Structure formats: structure tokens, C-alpha cells
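Q: Here's a chain of 122 amino acids. Please give me its 3D structure as C-alpha cells.
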Amino acid sequence: MIDEKERLMLSYVLSQCKGSYKVIDIDDFEDFFKKRYPKRKFDFDEILSHLDALGYVDIKFKDDKKYCLCATKNAKNLFEEEKSSKKTTKKIKLEVILFVIFVFVFAFVGAFLGTLFYNLWV
């Protein structure tokens, strides 16, 4: 399981690499993370090593300031599954809301007609 900072790193790697290996400078990672977390410091080596161990990125080489890496198919699948999961969740919520409205309307109509027929025959 990956946490928020790893998910953010993975999305950045996916946007930069686009299916092939790319050399990314550590300053690029810092700039990207500073936009979202201006007051926090991150250990990019730890984050990328964990993503590599999980099979989401493939690190060809690294040195003090640069990484040559690529996002794997697992990384792409992770984000695609999340998108489809969110769509399914939205669809289920919509179906539940429509069902509740449907039940309410027909319960109201049934009560109204029952009262009407009762008053006509009594």
C-alpha cells in the first residue's frame, strides 16, 4: 500500500516518463513537492526505493542528484483502477438516491390514493 507522498511521487513520475526511462534531477522533485507541501522536507530516495520495491517504478541508476527511472505498468494500472472505482462509487450513490426518491414518491402516491378511496367508500 502506498501513502499520499508516494502516490504524489508516482503521479509525477508517470507524467514525466510517459512509458520510457527518463533522467530526473532531484531538484525537479523538490520543486514539485514544494508546490504542495511548502514547509515539509521529504526523503526522495526512501520514497523512490519503496516504490521500486513495490514494483511501481524501475530505477535504472541513481546518484546524488539524478535518477534514471521509469514508471511500470503496475503504476498505470493503479491509477486506472482508482478512476474506475470512483466511477463505480458515483454510479452506486446515484442509484441509491434515485431509489430513495422513487420509494418516497410512490409511498406518497399510495397513501394519497388509499386515503382518497377510503373517503369515497366510507
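Q: Can you summarize the key feature?
A: The first strand starts at residue 22 and ends at 25.
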